[in-house]
Amino acid sequence: MGLKTLSIFLLLTTTAGAQPWPQTPPKIGRLELKQEYWDYIKEAAQRYQISPFLIQAVCAIESRYDPEARSGRCFGLMQLHKDTAKKYGVDAHDPRENIMGGAAVLARLMEKYDGNIRKVLGVYNSTCTDAYVREVLRAYHQAQLLETSSLPSARHKN
Predict the structure, then answer these.
(1) Catalytic amino acids?
(2) Domain tally for the chain?
């Protein structure tokens, strides 16, 4: 694992364990994430030990937070493929289950690819482009850095 990949992996995994996460959803651009979905994201992050900001970034870029979003055979906030939803035993049309399924996939891929976020995103989104990776990473950093910079524990870690 390269130093840059290791740094991203450590940031993602340590952020997952860092509490408290913001009570209200961080802003990503002009997108508005419903509180209900942020609560689901935090629940999934806790369950799968990944950053809620990564889950939020994937939701932002995949669906623009639209639970009704559809692209081919992919549905919902995290654009779960119907076969993936079936494999993970979730209903891709239910926002909470969609987030749980997507987070489970991200966590499995993070482990499989030793935290190499570019590979993770490339497998998560089979039509992945460099632009897609840049957008997810930009959204992740925006949410994570802006929100955690105001938390007392984050100030001492920087």
Answers:
(1) 62
(2) 1
